[in-house]
Amino acid sequence: MKYIFLLNQFSLKYKTNEMYEKIKRVCKKKKLNYKIEVNSPVISTEDILEKYKNTRNIIIAIGGDGTINRVLNGIVNTNNILGYIPYGTGNDFYRTNKELLNKGINKIDLVKINNKYFINIACFGIDADIGNNERIIHNKFIPRRYRYKIGVISSFIKYKPKLFEIDINNKTIKKHFTTVVVCNARYYGGGYKVSPNSSLTDGLLEVVLATKTNKYNMAKMITSMKTAMHLYYPEISIVQTKKLVLKSPTIVSANVDGEELRSKKFEIEIIEKGVEVYYDQDLINQIINKEL
Known about the structure:
Blueprint: E1 3-7, H1 9-12, H2 16-30, E2 34-38, H3 45-51, E3 58-63, H4 65-75, E4 81-86, H5 92-100, E5 104-113, E6 116-118, E7 121-125, H6 126-131, H7 134-137, H8 144-156, E8 162-168, E9 171-183, E10 187-188, E11 192-193, E12 205-211, H9 215-223, E13 236-241, E14 243-256, E15 259-279, H10 281-288
Parallel strand pairs: 1-2, 1-3, 3-4
Antiparallel strand pairs: 5-6, 5-15, 7-9, 7-14, 8-9, 8-14, 9-12, 10-11, 12-13, 14-15
Helix pairs in contact: 3-4, 8-9
């Protein structure tokens, strides 16, 4: 079994060669059986993953939650194991892993949303608008720790709560919501602990529902998620479930592990222990030279 490191030169840009050489040095030091793959305009990430679909390797995505999501969707229903080096804007899946996973290979829950998969969080409403705002969330001139807060300010000025109909646990809820967050893991937005009690292995989703409120309260509530204080707001409720259906009268954007997904209807269901994830903090530390 090999460690296949997948470099995305479009996100790493001028750091691609530096990362390539660093991986080589670390792998030789640790005596790993490894290969480094780099995508390009000629060979895509999906093309690279296709080469390994009939093998069993640890496919290591180097990047943020969006990069991990793309690799995840490329290895689902294969024998490959998902690994990662957190090198993105939010690195939220990594934050949960530090709290919950053991070193090595872990079987964790997988979530299907329409015809795609995710392992961290899918959100709807203002949180999706913030996460999908490329102008702010991936703006290299804004320090990472401020991007989500600035996104909140930018979005909430013009935001109007959205009408969703949610079928969950044999009940239908039809209301205007500020945000709806479907959680397999605990963090989003670059360290906002939206679902502090979520587990990656309990076979349950935690759905955080935030009903309509005034804009001042909305901004306070969302920013309070950094320390999980949003749980004390009366507008917030949390429901555990194995599946749900969220519908909107118009096409809306969801943010699914850093990737945008648009639809009028989202069918979401957990797949217990549906994917294997490789976690190695020592390998991460050596390649990025620090603990995040």
